Amino acid sequence: MIDKKLITLMIFLFSGFTLWQAWEANVNPKTPIAATSTATLPQPTLGNGANSASATALPSTAPVLSDSGFARGERVVVRTDKFLAEIDTIGGGIRKLTLLQHLAADDTGKPLVLMQDNAAPFYITRAGLLGEGLPNHNTAFTAQAKEYTLEAGKPTLEVKLDAPDANGIKVSKRFVFHRDSYVIDESFDISNNSAAPIQPNAYFEFLRDNTPPPGDQRFVSTFTGPAFYNETEKFHKIDFANIDKGKENKVRKSREGWVAMLQHYFVAAWIPKAGADLEFYTRKVGDKYYSAGVVVPVTAVAAGATSSVTVPLYAGPQEVDKLRDIAPGLDLTIDYSFLTIVATPLFWLLSKIHDYVSNWGVAIILLTVIIKAAFFHLSAKQYKSMAQMKVLGPKVEKLKQQYGDDRVKMNQAMMELYKKEKINPLSGCLPILLQMPIFLALYWVLLSAVELRHAPFALWIKDLSTADPYYVLPVIYGITMYITTKLNPPPPDPIQAKMMTIMPLVFSVFFFFFPAGLVLYYTVNNVLSIAQQWTLTRAHEAQAAASENAKR
Question: Does domain 45-335 have CATH number 2.70.98.90?
């Protein structure tokens, strides 16, 4: 029967989609790197050494500097309302960055560590100037103080590091932290006290291994790695595996854009000022590390003159409103897959509902109700078609007994039966096809929304972004799915019938590992669908029975 086959196909398409996510996370995971201390970290080469093959394709302006390893100098500790940061005097990069207003995935009593250099994942920032004698990420800076704290009532906090004077050129590195902001302005101030002009370039980059961030769920695959945005490619994610293969070890020239390092719920991005000749790059560093950065030109510094270059760094949660205000396209780092155009308004509506109810679980339930109401009439056509097919069940069985294994005559007879009963077997499939984008888009919304991270719902559900600890919701979902299969007309194919019988159990077990927010949505959707389908099926069966009685 055509309609049942198509319905089954759509169900299996969704099954394949979700199972593919599990396959990527479980069967084909990114190779993790064991946690190491700073003392045992390797010493990759960014220049003309043995490990610099990937750098040969880069232009001369790229940071092809000899790297002396991940040496530790003194740590400058910076505390604001958003961050607890550690800046190393060797290179002046951020070696540890803690987000004070977000909890760690594995320990809800501790804040989230986004960047670190003493454990896996290894994840730091580096920056420097390109030019002979100019400071880079290996230079030993001098800090003016060892600790900085954003004082009450002050909007900003400045941290300054000084590089050693070289041939009359003085360079200072500044960090400006802002109250109630995840943006850090990183600058180089250059004073040219030499007798000749200089034309330096600055680079700002992330250095990371490919270890998944703590808390990544086993059966839900999310992206970790670099991403770019420019006027040509727009938003472009780069898999670590493609860097390994040499496919993405190249420079992207643009006059606007940003480079980011993504992970589930969080993003760090260098956002240079538009209008300059920018060069964005990715490459493998050593055996286990990956860099993604941008080269920014610095205004020529005449003898006796000064110049500076500033590139903001955003390092924080993927909150859509914040990201949109910071840079064009930065909100695209929230991974809605290929359904961004559908997912974006869905999240907007979800957040508006949350503004009124102040509970993300309740907001998910109400959004599901709204979506079901919007598709009520469309779903009614689907359920009416299913009810019609179910009523025809006894007549279909008679045809099967009459024609046996003669599929050609069986199909001809069924087409005649559909024509006689004025039933379109495809009418129940179109509603499913039209609703599928909404169905899948909401999957990505609930999977990607950082707002659901550590958000409680009720009773035992303390975190909508993690699996139900007692598997109550998955079991309820399995029950609702079983009821749904019983309300639908049974497939004529015995194999299909068996598959439809075991699918509720398979999905219930599979959903043991899904975030509770996702399972809540699917469960509520099923409950509403059952109520609508049961009501319409009963009404149609009563109507059909009355019609048969009238014929007698």
Answer: yes
